[in-house]
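Weekly sync, protein design subgroup
Attendees: M.S., D.O., the rotation student, P.L. (late)

Item 1: inverse folding check
M.S. brought a backbone from last month's batch and wanted to see whether the design step gives back something sensible before we order anything. D.O. pointed out we never logged the input encoding, so this time it goes straight into the notes. Structure tokens as presented (50 positions):
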């Protein structure tokens, strides 16, 4: 799974498409996932690709 902040959304989408060859499904993180960090930086993740 790829977790990402709003700054790295383009990069996360590009990486997911490169891996699977099709657009990914994204999900907004819930309040109980606030401690999850972005896969590309140390910011708090807002979304994940499933």
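Designed sequence read out in the meeting:
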């Amino acid at each position: 799974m790829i977790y990402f902040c709003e700054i790295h959304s383009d990069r996360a989408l590009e990486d997911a498409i490169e891996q699977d060859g099709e657009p990914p499904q994204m999900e907004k993180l819930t309040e109980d996932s606030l401690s999850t960090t972005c896969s590309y930086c140390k910011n708090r993740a807002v979304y994940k690709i499933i």
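Discussion: The mean pLDDT is 93. The chain is about 25% helix and 20% strand.
Action: P.L. to compare against the previous round before Friday.
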